[in-house]
Write a structure and sequence with these properties.
It is a single chain. With 245 residues, the protein is mainly alpha-helical. 55% of the residues lie in helices and 2% in strands. It contains ten helices and two strands. Helix 7 packs across helix 9. The radius of gyration is 20 Å and the shape is elongated.
Amino acid sequence: MSGGTDEGPRRVGRPRADQLRPYSGRPPREELLCAAAELFTVRGYAATTTRAVAERAGLRQATMYHYFGGKEELLAELLESTVTPSLVLSRRLLADGGRPAAHRLWELCRSDVMLLCGGPYDLGALYLLPELRGPRFTPFRRMRGELRDAYRALLHATSAGAELAGDSAGLTLRNDLVFGLIEGVMLIHRSDPGRPVAAFAEAAADAALRIAGVTPPSAPDPFPSLPGHPMPAGRGPSPGGAPVR
């Protein structure tokens, strides 16, 4: 492939210093995702070109097209990475009938906030892009819908859900409020990013359960954290390349 060597794609020769991040040793694909996450959230999606992404990653534009077909593919993969770890965890929590549903819902809320706020880039802001209505983002919309349904199923299994038996609209409304709070915490966290994320996540989970009408568990049983999805995310990429949603 043009621009490649036996050791992999070549980095851009003599790029401007302000275009390149320090060399991280990450594979080119991850480097491109990190660069896209930074530029999409700082400059804006519409204002970012594929050339800018490639240069920020220290790669030639032609090399970028070896990994991604364009901006839409970069954006779609970043967005899907913000949901995948929580979706996997939600399936495990739904299957874990040995613990109270309130504990499992709390753990999903807490883990989701940890994922959303644990990275340097506010990928959640990209959820508002009008481009997401396009067909390329159908898988992301489907995944996000499945995660919302998992929240609803856990809420339905709580005491508050039992009180709403027969009131499907009421249960849906309460679930939408919980899900909206969890996805909206990035705006709160952005106003004071110095807050410890773990404490912030626990407080957000407590608040979400109170909105749902559920008493937050005082000492929920720990649930093993899932490894990050193998791409940058922060719903952002972490500086070390390990994603966080």
